[in-house]
Amino acid sequence: MRNANVELLLSNLLGREKADALFSTLNFPSILADWEAGTVTRAELAQSMNMALFEDLLARSPNGRAYTQETVAHGGSVYFDHGALRTVRWTQTGALPPGEAAFTRILRPLGFRLNGRYPLDRLGMTGRAYAHEDAPDEIAQFFVSELHPERFSTAFQQAVTNVVGTSKDPLTPRSLAQLWELERDGALPIDAAQALLPVIVGAFARHHDVPSEADYETLLSESAEMAWIATEGNAFNHATDRVADVFALSESEKAKGRPMKPEVERSRSGRVFQTAYRADIVTRTFKAADGALVTRDVPGSFYEFITRKREFDQATRSWVTDLRFDAGNAQGIFKMTAHAAA
């Protein structure tokens, strides 16, 4: 199924070839079967953003790209379940709002609402899920985590300030006004949506300066997650394919020699099961003690898989997909970026 507004937005942003590939790869929400030329709804803009962010993740994850291409080549598709990003809730984040506030100002106007809070205490973080009000089961959710530097050492806190204190705000006054209008009206004129889409997609990136090696080492010694933020910023940490049987998929991918997580994570509810590839290694730049720029290999983003069982909803008297997350699962999955940097 194609929606003309989403197709136009993606083609203008990514080019016709990539837009066509995304339509052939990803599930498409049934709510978008109807559209009005010239007016873009919040659901259409949310889906366009999600599809563009999925493409960005594949560009940074060779393992995820290989899996996706192989799946499509065999006649399958990807059910985009959720994307995850990491933020820092700190008083000194430069021009960027602290923590998840930098992204709820985007997600809320697009129609996303809080769908659960998950303490990630072993990591010194808190995670929150955001599902789309108009199509919660079909438009990919966001799992947004905040790291709490106050739970770490004084030296760690100073390194956090040194790194994220240089952050720039990717949202312009014009884009903020467009988001306000979108939240008020639930839709935007097509030209405004075309101008807004690249700005909000671009927000999912690193917006602080090149970190120093010394600060990176300080962060890495206490939190692999904060060290990851130092190099990758607010880029998608992972994107997730919802599959029928994550256990069978895990064994199949291991047999192919793919770098799979050893064990599948199981939620306490017994309805959500997750696994993932280990993070792809990327080369990043750092400032050495003498001011020179140096490079080193560090963990980048990765690709995840999830199986969600259904539960009987007493209110609607129907079976619905369990769209919740699990703190234990999340902390296990986060370890995919914790292997040592080189």
Q: Gist?
A:
The chain has one domain (4-337): Roll (2,3-Dihydroxybiphenyl 1,2-Dioxygenase, domain 1). Helix content is 39%, strand content 23%. It has helices at 4-14, 16-25, 42-60, 62-73, 101-107, 154-164, 173-185, 190-202, 213-222, 224-232, 246-255, 327-334; strands at 39-41, 80-88, 112-120, 125-132, 141-147, 187-189, 238-242, 265-266, 272-276, 281-287, 293-299, 302-308, 310-313, 318-321.
Question: What can you see in these coordinates?
Answer:
The protein is of the alpha+beta class. It has one domain (4-337): 2,3-Dihydroxybiphenyl 1,2-Dioxygenase, domain 1 (Roll). The protein is built from twelve helices and 14 strands. The strands form four sheets. An eight-stranded mixed sheet has the order 3-4-5-2-7-12-9-8, sandwiched between helices. A two-stranded antiparallel sheet has the order 1-6. Strand 13 (310-313) and strand 14 (318-321) form a beta hairpin. Helix 1 (4-14) packs parallel to helix 3 (42-60), helix 3 crosses helix 4 and helix 9 runs antiparallel to helix 10. The radius of gyration is 20 Å and the shape is globular. The mean pLDDT is 96.
